[in-house]
Amino acid sequence: MANRKVPVAAGSAALKACQDALSQSLAQLPPETRQALPADEVATALREGGRQVPRMQLFTAVRYTLEELAASYPGRAVEVRVPPAGAVQILEGTVHRRGTPPAVVEMDPAIWLALTVGLVSWDLMLSEGVVSASGNRCDLGPILPLF
Fold first, then answer.
1. Could you tell me if residue 29 is inside a domain?
2. Closest CA to 30 of 51, 18, 45, 49
3. Which H or E element spans position 97?
4. By residue range, what is the domain housing residue 91?
C-alpha cells in the first residue's frame, strides 16, 4: 500500500505484543466453558487484555491491521471503524462522499485485534452486539481473520 503510515516492522511487533496479551487474557477464562461463554464475557476478557498493552502500542497494532485490511480489500463501500484508533473504507461497490457510508462496522480496539488474528469469531462477537454492523455488505466474517 503506497500510503502506509505504520511501518510494517513496527506494526507487526505491536500486533504480536497485543496478540500475546489478548491470548493470555482469554486463557484466564475457565477452559471447560471458554467456548460456551456469552460474547460479552469474552469481550470483557479481551478488553482487559487490551488494557495490559500500552495505549500507543495498541493503536499502532490497530492502525497497522486496518491498513492491511484496506490493502487486501480496496474500495469504499464499507467503513470499518475502530475508535479512537482509526477507520478505513474497504470493498468495491457503492461509493459515498459525505456523511455516513451505506455500510458501517464498528468495534473497540481489543475486539478488532482479536478478530484479525483469529482469537474469536465474527459470529460470536456479532451475536450479542459486541460488534456493531449495519448496512449492505457489512458481514466481515468471510474476510477475517487477516493474519
1. yes
2. 45
3. none
4. 8-143
Q: Which of 119, 109, 110 is nearest to 144 (CA)?
A: 119
pTM for this predicted structure: 0.91
* Nearest C-alpha neighbor of 57 from the set 12, 94, 24: 12
pLDDT for residue 122 is more than 80 = yes
The answer as to whether 2 is a domain residue is no
> Phi and psi (nearest 5°) for 117?
-105, 5
**Which pLDDT does position 35 carry in this prediction?**
60
Q: Tell me the C-alpha distance between 113 and 96, whole Å.
A: 26
Instruction: Assess if residue 16 is contained within a domain.
Output: yes
| pLDDT tens sequence across 4-17 | 899 999 999 999 99
**Residue 76, in any domain of the structure:** yes
pLDDT tens-place string over residues 52-80:
999 999 999 999 999 999 999 999 899 99
Query: In this structure, what CATH number is given to the domain that contains residue 16?
Result: 3.30.1050.40
**Domain total of the chain:** 1
What one-character DSSP code corresponds to residue 103? Answer: S
Computed on alpha carbons and rounded to an integer, the radius of gyration of the chain in Å comes to 15
